[in-house]
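pinned: reference chain
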Amino acid sequence: MHPGSIPFRLTLAVSLLLALPASAAGPKSYVYKTVAGVKIEADVHALAGEAERPTVAWFHGGALMFGNRTAVPMQLVDLCRTNGFVLASFDYRLVPQTKIPAIVEDVTDGIVWLRKQGPKLFHADPNRLVVAGASAGGYLTLMAGCTAQPPPTALVSYWGFGDIAGDWTARPNEQYRKWGLIPKEKAWEGVTKKILTNTDKANGRPQANLFNYLKQNGLWPEVATGFDPTREPEKFKPYCPIRNLTSKFPPTLFLHGTADPDVPYQQSVDMKAALDALQIPARLITIEKGGHGLWGGDKKLVVQAFADSMEYIRQALTSAP
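pinned: its structure tokens
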């Protein structure tokens, strides 16, 4: 695998954010939805006790094409354990076997399940809910702000994006093309038609290889949605958070690096500006020279940024009525 590829850089980001500590108590897995015989699951970290507890919903990254619910920030696990919060980490169906409209349905259904079944299964408080996610999970977090009813208490988007059909993704990415062009037939090699809800090193490699090809050729939005961004731009509107903001959108924290080659920093800048215009509380933590996952930024500032995001979640959940 090329050292500049997305999966490689995500491996580096794991060391900063996405690794569970070995001592973490194991979560309990639940099936929150079944589609065509495929079970879609969530891992729930919850302490014993009968009192309703504030809750965090986490959505993993991976370009909507790979990754799984075990990729939970160790800081978030520790935060929830220390404060007695419930933490639910969700799988969802993946591209290209599933398209974005259905994935957004999974996110919405997951939050509905969390609110309806959570109080009975693990004493989740449905009225105190923060939704968070990284990269593609950050995008799904922002979509949850548009679709979840009632809106979550707050959102945290780690290097996420609000526009899935902008030039940054609908045109060939020159950074990806520097690594060597992938032939079309090679790109689709090993990609099955079977619905995937999570990937590991084995079944995730073909998905990741296809993603690199799609980025090289500006084809990700079309393959991810089934719509052509040039001929059918209106069909992308329901799936672009920045085009669906209202005064009811939740307060949001953004974290992003200025040198992110995968999701442009401008994506978070634009989202914050749009929320500012609606007078919705929004904050953007910027890491100068930080890449995807903030990798490459000043380590002390990166650590502080993650700590600030944990405090943001804590305050949102403890101050919510």
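why pinned: Residues 285 and 308 are 9 Å apart (CA to CA). The first strand starts at residue 28 and ends at 35.
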